[in-house]
Task: structure prediction
Amino acid sequence: MRGYDNTSYGAGFADVYDEWYAEVTDVDATVARVVDLAGEGGRVIELGVGTGRLALPMAAAGLAVSGIDASEAMLDRLRARDPDCRVTTIRGDMARDLPAGPFDVALVAYNTLFNLPDAAAQGACFAAVASCLRPGGCFVVEAFVPATTGEWVERPTVELRSMTVDRVVLSVARHDPVMQEASGQFVDLSEEGGVQLRPWRIRWSTPAQLDEMATAAGFELEARWADMAATPFDDASNDHVSVYRR
Result:
């Protein structure tokens, strides 16, 4: 998508992210999983921290949480929700600007790794995470499984996301199964706000491809589940939570 960069998603979605995605994944299960892996009071960094949907509950559970995001708009929302500064925020690229650590756990939730534009950037992210984890630390990756998420077709799609008496949100998307890319816009039409475009773009990787990146960065796959509650992963799973141990 021409003109799209690593700040575009945050600029487009920061004002609606908490409304649209508050329950997109199981927050309680995520917090419990990270506490279990990091240990009580452990140091955690969340990649693509956004508005703090997960970071703030993790901090409330007693973890020492840092969060990195490329979007100042997202981080502004997080800081507004965090007047006591429980989460340390870093503005930067999660493949290039991670702090030194050492952290016990790094978390990249809900397909956020796929916001990186290509396989090279995703591999660089694994290497960067390895460098900021303590020996024996964990990288937790939550993402969809492309092969079971439906047929990726090259033709554009237009779908209705939501509709009320004074607001309509349309989802316009296109997919490139060869390049493993998808991009789109949520076209938000309302009486109050007029027309607002909310762009997104992802480059997906299969679990096997992620495993290769992890191995190259010095990780071993310790566990893979279908969700944060540790539901067994199988060939029918639409999502995966992969725990890589340094």
Summary: Helices lie at 8-13, 17-21, 27-38, 55-60, 72-81, 119-132, 207-216. The first strand starts at residue 43 and ends at 47. The radius of gyration is 18 Å. The chain has two domains: 8-147+205-245, 157-201.
